[in-house]
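Entry:
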Amino acid sequence: MRIFGSERIASLMERLKIPEDEPIEHPWVTRALERAQQQVERRNFEIRKQLLEYDDVMNKQREVIYKERESVLEEKNLREDILRMTDDTIETLVSLYAEEKVRPEEWDIRGLIKRLEQIFPISFPYHSLKEIYDRQQLMKVITQEVRKAYQKKEERLGEELMRTLEKMILLHTIDSQWKDHLYSMDALKEGIGLRGYGQRDPLIEYKREAFEMFEELTQRIKENVTELIFKVEISREPSRERVLVGTPQVPQPALVGANQGKERMGTSQESHLPHRSGKTKIGRNDPCPCGSGKKYKHCCGRR
């Protein structure tokens, strides 16, 4: 009533000076309470509706990522998917350093080569790329060199190991990048309400920026997968037979100890016999020299 009630009701209650513990049954007060309750419910409904619209943006992005992840798990051969990501990465880099609106003489070929060599383990000759004045031809030349390097790595590792490597890298990249994206979306959601002070709808701004961030996420996944697939190396463990043949035989400590025990069996039995010396006389109540802990008269002194 303090927020949504009318001032007329408040002034009326003050003039009548009705005690707080007395029930109020006047029709004016009843209608005012109904109107206030309706406004509260309408306000709460709008808040819940707006929260659902915010959550709907994240749910759509989550569905896309989870669907992509499930397809990776079910697919046995991801070679074509990786190559498509590689082609998209090359196209993005060429569009960035060799813009279509810029004359070919002004293309940043050195910057393009530097970025390409950061991702791919390939040396691109500057003069060869500098002489190309067509963007499609430039992408074609770069793509051919990258695919040759990919084929060489697959031949070196083997087809089965390469398929396993592709799946591991793709799953790891999707998971790690998606986690970072969730943190960024939470930060965006916390501060998006301030856009209302600039006469802009926070929900529309949230949807727009969320879409841009999701586009950046997909591009990062492609670039990271492309970079890792060329840079990660797998070292094979030597076979067990090779290890056994090449390793010299080392004597077993247990066997050596057993042999020594057999050789010393006689001496160990003799060591338990009482030590008798002509020069030293052992008293009957002295500890027995055999090491049993008993008195001499109750141990070896009985003999």
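Residues 240-279 have pLDDT under 50 and may be disordered.
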